[in-house]
Amino acid sequence: MRRWIAIPLLALALTACDDGATTAEAPPPVEPTREAITHFGRMILVDHDGPRGQIHLENGEVLWFPAVRDVKAFTLLPEESKDVAAMYVSDMATAQSWEEPDTWMPARDAFYVIGSDARGGMGMPEPVPFSDRSAADAFANERGGDVVMWDDIPDDYILSSPEEGTDMDMGMHMNMDRGEGHQ
After folding, report:
1. 3-class DSSP state for residue 136?
2. 113, 127 Cβ separation under 8 angstroms
3. How far is it, in rounded angstroms, from Cα 26 to Cα 139?
4. How far apart are CA 51 and CA 93, in angstroms?
5. Is residue 74 within a helix (H) or strand (E), and if so which, with residue range?
6. pTM of the model
7. H or E segment to which residue 158 belongs
8. Mean pLDDT of 119-129
9. Cβ atoms of 120 and 50 closer than 8 Å
10. N or C: which end of the chain has fewer CB within 10 A?
């Protein structure tokens, strides 16, 4: 009798150890307010144009990023938390505009245009995310670059220093009406 009870319990234990078999549902994306402060640099998120990101940690904390480049960097840096419950990026296929990236999608589901002339919220080369492959292709045709998936974004594209000639004067990023350093 004990053997018949032990077999179902062993099967249940093995199923619980299977990756993804008991994964909790990811928390949904949240809309940033003026109180959303960026993880790197401690700036007001909504003051930055272009695609943004948010990472939800397993402890419930939401980390904000003014550029998708920073989201990917977070995942690559060994000193950052690996207890990630969900990652979201702006969906530029459905966003109202570059200045108002108002829709979110899971970071791993996006098609990214890398190597285009687009610059993110911090004036750096930006992986531009799209939920629709044809929208990503159209952006790449117009602005240059290649379409890749999350895991195919090269680490050196994210962690390298700014391209030659990229203006990184931090003052320009805080004065949005000058129109420099964006897109």
Report:
1. helix
2. yes
3. 29
4. 11
5. helix 68-76
6. 0.75
7. helix 155-159
8. 89
9. yes
10. N
Helix (H) or strand (E) holding 112: strand 111-114
d(CA 116, CA 183): 10
* Whether residue 163 has pLDDT greater than 70: no
CA distance 172 to 175: 5
Q: Give the closest residue to 100 by CA, choosing from 53, 49, 175.
A: 49
The answer to whether residues 43 and 67 touch, using CB atoms and an 8 Å cutoff, is no
For residue 124, give the nearest of 82, 174, 173 by alpha carbon. 173
Rounded Cα–Cα distance for residues 181 and 183 (Å): 7
> What's the pLDDT at 174?
28
- Partners of 147 in beta bridges: 113
Cα gap 29→12, rounded to integer Å:
32
Query: Which residues lie below 8 Å from residue 130, measured CB to CB, with a gap of 6+?
Result: 91, 92, 93, 110, 111, 112, 113, 136, 139
3-state class of 89 per DSSP?
strand
DSSP 14: H
pLDDT of 21:
36
63 residue type, one letter: L
Task: Please give the pLDDT value at position 37.
Answer: 84
